[in-house]
Specification:
Blueprint lengths: L5 E11 L11 E12 L4 E5 L6 H8 L7 E6 L2 E2 L5 H10 E4 L3 H4 L6 H10 L6 H14 L16 H13 L5 E5 L7 H18 L2 E6 L2 H7 L2 E6 L2 E7 H6 L4 H9 L39 H5 L5 E2 L5 E2 L27
Parallel strand pairs: 3-8, 3-9, 6-7, 7-8
Antiparallel strand pairs: 1-2, 1-4, 4-5, 9-10, 10-12, 11-12
Bound molecules: adenosine-5'-diphosphate (ADP) and magnesium ion.
The site of magnesium ion has 4 residues, from helix 1.
Length: 343
């Protein structure tokens, strides 16, 4: 395979507030707006941003659990929108999901062994011996003892349940795992163990991750590249090294300032940025971040900043820090940032 494992092209999702209407101009939650990126095999691509910025919506669109309003998702070059039911099933084998709360996503009446072998049994019938062997193998891959296969989820700790969720995701040997806040509910020490497990599995099996988190410390620890989202849009996308060395978008800067050290013993909370995230039903004009942005200029209130490539390979959507050359832009608005030009 030469192309990217996953390509996302102009992905947009609006949830109409009035059900069943196909009219335009019905008020809608603009959960995701024109999001594009690609993920290579074996890569950890992180998505960060405050709660409500569209991260889970993006994950659901990638798995085609919901249909996009517009835009495309290509898996190994194939548009998943065009897939027939059995093709989609085959495609889903390549992509698995791990959720924040394994307890609510695992059937409480099934044993651990039944839970993790179920994905395989959806495709082929297993005999009792085969099933036990598979369960033992999967459990040991995620660092659990084979005896655990007889336990119910309620008889396991939070960390053990998350390992179980990962074991189930591994059962079909996927090339991509989407982890949506997969460690966010865990104690910090358990969190570190699960992150190490994920990185270990990546090394051994070459799995790519889309790792969704509101926690930048975790992302810096695990990620190769990172997309920062604000109100449904990517505002900055860079390698983790580049982004954490010097954030360019004022929103990225604020997020990083709120979580400065990648210290696993420090308890982190949701980002204490000034002000509220505006409503995605009525997003601010121009750059959606402008009401909270210390650098906002007039242009930010009226014109949506495009993602502009910078010399270090990142892309940034910011009129002040990454001005795009347009004919009608007043030259005086350049370089008026109190912090000076970053580029
Ligand atoms: P995140 O995972 O970043 O917290 P979500 O993708 O869950 O964000 O939500 C993005 C926005 O879309 C939020 O405003 C949320 O309320 C809204 N939303 C999510 N799912 C639905 C839905 N099924 N119907 C209507 N609005 C939704
Ligand atoms: Mg979410």
């Amino acid at each position: 395979m030469t192309g990217p494992l996953l390509e996302v092209d102009g992905l947009t999702k609006h949830y109409p507030l009035v059900a069943g209407l196909f009219k335009t101009n019905v008020p809608a939650v603009r959960a995701l707006e024109n999001v594009s990126f690609s993920v290579a095999a074996g890569e950890t691509f992180c998505i960060v941003g405050e709660s409500g910025c569209g991260k889970s919506t993006l994950a659901r669109l990638l798995m085609r659990l919901v249909d996009p309003t517009s835009g495309r998702v290509l898996v190994e070059g194939t548009d998943i929108a065009g897939l027939k039911r059995h093709e989609l099933r085959a495609c889903r084998r390549r992509m698995q999901m791990v959720f924040q709360d394994p307890y609510s996503s695992l059937n409480p009446r099934l044993t651990a062994g039944q839970i993790i072998t179920e994905p395989v049994e959806n495709f082929e019938r297993l005999g009792r011996k085969q099933r036990n062997e598979l369960a033992a193998e999967l459990l040991s891959k995620v660092g659990l003892s084979p005896e655990m296969m007889h336990r119910l989820p309620s008889e396991m700790s939070g960390g053990q349940r998350q390992r179980l969720g990962i074991a189930r995701a591994l059962a079909l040997e996927p090339s991509l795992i989407i982890a949506d806040e997969a460690v966010s509910a865990l104690d910090v020490s358990v969190q570190a163990q699960i992150l190490n497990l994920l990185m270990d599995l990546q090394k051994k099996m070459g799995i790519a991750y889309i790792f969704i988190s509101h926690d930048l410390g975790v992302v810096e620890h695990i990620g190769h590249r990172v997309a920062v989202m604000y109100l449904g849009r990517i505002v900055e996308l860079a390698s983790c090294e580049t982004l954490f060395a010097k954030p360019v978008h004022p929103y990225t800067e604020a997020l990083i300032a709120a979580a400065p050290v990648p210290d696993p013993t420090r308890v982190r909370s949701e980002v204490p940025l000034e002000g509220e995230v505006p409503s995605p039903v009525n997003p601010p004009s121009g750059c959606a971040f402008h009401p909270r942005c210390p650098l906002a200029i007039d242009r930010c209130r009226v014109e949506l900043p495009p993602l502009v490539p910078m010399s270090d390979g990142r892309v940034v959507a910011c009129h002040v820090r990454a001005p795009s050359a347009t004919a009608d832009m007043p030259l005086t608005s350049l370089g008026t940032s109190p912090l000076g030009s970053v580029a």
